[in-house]
Amino acid sequence: MRVFILGGSGLIGAAIVRNLVSAGHHVFALARSENSVANLAVMGAWPIRGDIHNPGPWCDKLPVVDAVIHAACDFSADMGGVDAGMLIELLRTLHRQSGPKAPALPRFIYTGGSWLYPSSKSGDHIHDETAPFAPQPGFEWMIAGLTKILSDPALHGMVIHPATVYRTDPPSRTRPPLPGGALHDMARVARDENRVRIVGDGSVIWPLIHADDLAELYRLVLENGERGQSYIGVGIEGIATGDLARQIARTFGRTDCGVVHISPDDIAREYGEWARGLAHSHRMTSQKAIRELGWQPRHNDITRDLQSCVEVTAPLPVAS
């Protein structure tokens, strides 16, 4: 398929690009900067210069595609308006491209998120796709966006709701890398300041998903997902942030690395109102995607994933 990806340079999008290219799809991706252009080209995608804040110019030049994956979000205060404006322009382009004689409706995957689902007061309660939405403040706009995609009669619309996303990279011979995504700042502060910061008292439950597993789910939904369906993407149904922090402290900090508790107000002042979601406690399940699409997430042991960042494989002996 010819697939256009929004957010292809981000944590989720880059993993999707790599996955789809390796599966033989022809991938186009929006690139805001020259650095993004270069990175996307290295991954095997065809970069299209543009910005979601100004969609008109690149929508007018968009090549004919079979599918769109929307994984772009900048967490700004006006993201709802940006998303709505971008969708108007992009859908106009897709409708014009497809037309009544097109062999199939264009497929469109919209990215929602676990913060659209209610907070679980009980650690035993697990959300699936049937749970009603109760979005964290600042994320209500996602519901309008996904509703627009799912209800458009000219689209094969689908939605993926990722859990909290993280990434692990193989270590180098010099300095071990930090995990990416939601765990990056926790690991960076553990390494550099010998402490780990978490929001709340450590009882908050986070569902987690590795970016590579999530990218595989996007591919399966792209190729086989049913129109109008939503799929939750989670590899670890839930882990207490206190337990997670202690594992990060042991892996990236020194022996006396401690855990520091901060309030939702403090984290919001530092990162913006969206960061209050870091205090959102809930568990989620991906049984629907596993059952209907055959998805099998491989990263279900966070201890092993964290350790993989620091275990440098010994170099092979040089033949004499």
Automatic annotation (TrEMBL):
Gene3D superfamilies: NAD(P)-binding Rossmann-like Domain. It comes from the Bacteria. InterPro entries: Epimerase_deHydtase (IPR001509), NAD(P)-bd_dom_sf (IPR036291), NAD(P)-dependent_oxidoreduct (IPR051783). SUPFAM superfamilies: NAD(P)-binding Rossmann-fold domains. GO terms for cellular component: cytoplasm. Residues 3-230 form the NAD-dependent epimerase/dehydratase domain. This is NAD-dependent epimerase/dehydratase domain-containing protein. It comes from Thalassospira lucentensis.
